[in-house]
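INTERNAL AUDIT FORM
Audit reference: QA-55
Scope: verify that the stored structure record matches its stored sequence.
Auditor: D.O.
Record contents follow.
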Amino acid sequence: MRNFRFRDHVVLCLLTDEGSALTGLVNFVMPLRTSNVRFRDLPDIVVLCDTTYLRREWTSICNFPKIYVYHVSFGSPPRNPSKPLICLFYVVVLFSCRVTKSSCF
């Protein structure tokens, strides 16, 4: 895996699992990739998520540039906590689409 140094980027944390409802990521990404912004000025989008979930939405966002995906199982410790992934960023966005059995009628 390549080492990237992100700066002035958007971090998107998807608190989902493989059975979660779709979040409509294309609606989040599209405004960040507007055609009137030069390529070099586009902020990187770093997606932290369970990649088994993201496979279902990947076809709608895969053609947008500068999107980086890292597999994260929330609730488990990071593999290498001595190397920080995220330093300086514009914003952190949390999406949660988990459905519990107790919330169903």
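Auditor finding: record pair retrieved intact. Residues 7-103 form a domain with the Rossmann fold fold (CATH 3.40.50).
Action required: none
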